[in-house]
């Protein structure tokens, strides 16, 4: 750990009012090292420089504290988690969380399993598959307090992938970049049909960058109709409008 300048990380954590132990900091360093090692043989991230990973992956993932209290023992599913963002940083920083990581690529899921084992994380599980399929499984449908996603997709499509997983009175929080006003307007109908309501947008700038970020907070107030999600690929090809 002495090979890394972690002051940037500590500063970012301080700005978010997150306090981590030395063991948790060490877990983040190990996670970074595994990310870079595995990235040599598979495409996990285009961001590899230490400070950039700290800013654009770790701090960005943890910034959800601006939108929701993460200190509670809640059950979360991370849809399209990729290399584990935001799910693994959230689990390291907030060990009481129970988290499911879902991704459609088996190689990425293998990486996630290695990270979980290496960091000795508990109550965090992986699923290899498509969001459309598992949200029809009674073990997962409407079983989560919170669904999160940093996946790059329009909010209408993401809502169809994510809202079916949330319990009534739960939340779907989407990580978004840039200007989102038009996307919000275009997604209103889909969100309502799926049983949700857009409650709030939390806008901020990622520290030490010019990246504009936003959290779109959707509350679920009624059961998602059985019609949704539609068959694989449909939410992306033909978003509800």
TrEMBL record:
Binding positions for S-adenosyl-L-methionine per the UniProt entry: 80, 85, 131-132, 150
Provide the E.C. number(s) assigned to this enzyme.
Answer: 2.1.1.-
- GO molecular function, a single term: rRNA (guanine-N7-)-methyltransferase activity
Short name of one Pfam family: GidB
Q: Which UniProt keywords apply?
A: Cytoplasm, Methyltransferase, rRNA processing, S-adenosyl-L-methionine, Transferase
Where does the UniProt annotation locate this protein? Cytoplasm
**Does the UniProt entry include the keyword Cytoplasm?**
yes
Q: Which SUPFAM superfamilies match?
A: S-adenosyl-L-methionine-dependent methyltransferases (SSF53335)
Q: What is its main location?
A: cytoplasm
Recorded GO CC terms: cytosol
| The keyword Methyltransferase is assigned to this record | yes
According to its UniProt record, this protein's enzyme class is: transferase
Q: Which InterPro entries match?
A: rRNA_ssu_MeTfrase_G, SAM-dependent_MTases_sf
Annotated HAMAP family: 16SrRNA_methyltr_G (MF_00074)
Q: What does it do?
A: Specifically methylates the N7 position of a guanine in 16S rRNA.
Please give the family membership noted in the entry. Belongs to the methyltransferase superfamily. RNA methyltransferase RsmG family.
The identity of this protein, by name, is Ribosomal RNA small subunit methyltransferase G
Q: Which organism is it from?
A: Lachnotalea glycerini
Q: Which gene encodes it?
A: rsmG
């Amino acid at each position: 750990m002495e090979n890394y300048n972690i002051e940037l990380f500590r500063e970012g954590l301080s700005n978010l009012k997150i306090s981590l132990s030395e063991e948790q900091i060490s877990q983040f360093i190990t996670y970074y090292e595994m990310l870079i090692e595995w990235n040599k043989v598979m495409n996990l991230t285009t961001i590899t420089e230490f400070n950039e990973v700290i800013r654009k992956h770790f701090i960005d993932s943890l910034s959800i504290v601006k939108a929701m209290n993460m200190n509670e023992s809640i059950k979360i599913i991370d849809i399209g988690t990729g290399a584990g963002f935001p799910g693994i940083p959230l689990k390291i920083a907030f060990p009481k969380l129970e988290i499911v990581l879902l991704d459609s690529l088996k190689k990425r899921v293998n990486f996630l399993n290695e990270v979980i084992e290496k960091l000795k994380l508990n109550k965090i599980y992986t699923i290899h598959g498509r969001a459309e399929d598992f949200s029809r499984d009674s073990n997962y449908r409407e079983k989560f307090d919170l669904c999160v996603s940093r996946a790059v997709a329009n909010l209408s499509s993401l809502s169809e992938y994510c809202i079916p997983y949330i319990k009534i009175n739960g939340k779907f929080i989407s990580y978004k970049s840039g200007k989102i006003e038009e996307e919000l307007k275009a997604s209103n109908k889909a969100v309502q049909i799926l049983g949700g309501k857009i409650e709030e947008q939390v806008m901020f700038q990622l520290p030490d960058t010019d990246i504009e970020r936003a959290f779109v907070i959707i509350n679920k107030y009624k059961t998602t109709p059985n019609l949704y999600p539609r068959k694989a690929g449909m939410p992306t090809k033909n978003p509800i409008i």
